[in-house]
Amino acid sequence: MSKALDELRARLLDIEADVTFVSLATRLRPRLGDVVNWSAGGEVTLLAREFMGSRDWRVEGVFGPLLVRLLATLERYTRNLIEEALVAYEGRAATYDQLALHIKNRNTALTGTLLAAIEAPRDHLKLQFDSLISNLASCKAGSTTYHLNSKAFGAAVVGMGAAALERALGNVGVSDWWDKVGSYRALEAVLGTKGSRATGKVARDRLEELCRWRNNLAHGGDEEVALAESELRECVAFARTLAEALDGVVLPSVKAGTA
Prior knowledge:
By secondary structure, this protein is mainly alpha-helical.
């Protein structure tokens, strides 16, 4: 299991805990009056009355931002997984010359793209541009002390649409992987599908749907997205299982030299 998956699972547990809290608060509010000792008075009963009187809110207004957070967590996982794949490539190749040409070219191109943004760095990434330059300079013929810029590959992960995910994995030489992901039985169970080809296709479509919902929520889009608790929990289950399936494909392919 990758470190990226370990972190993702912890973050998803946090999201599920928040969903549970919102759900409990929603169910408790109309029933609180049955258990409060109103004769006690004081600040606590005032808070209870205020809580019970809070009616002008929608639970969907809370679940929507949690979906945005869910997709951000999946994007972070992908970024971290990509960076771990680069470390695995370095572990396989004792010299820079032993790396696949695709990885060497991508390392140069993606580092250049990131360096070109030095005057407008991305807020969500912590980058050390001096290290990027130093690492790139180490990537030369015959070098046994080279370092690939894994951060440049990770920075290329922008959004969590299916095409974005395919590009990100393609950067590290992993392609034609949807059927392999579809062979993960737990993903079949979550999606209610049969067969690797069908499961991979439905997983891709499902990811596209969640990203469309996320974009409409995050950017005030025209599509009204109102998630129920059960729907949000299904989204979390899908994100977790998709990541587990990816984990079983990406790093093993890189380490085995089949990527």
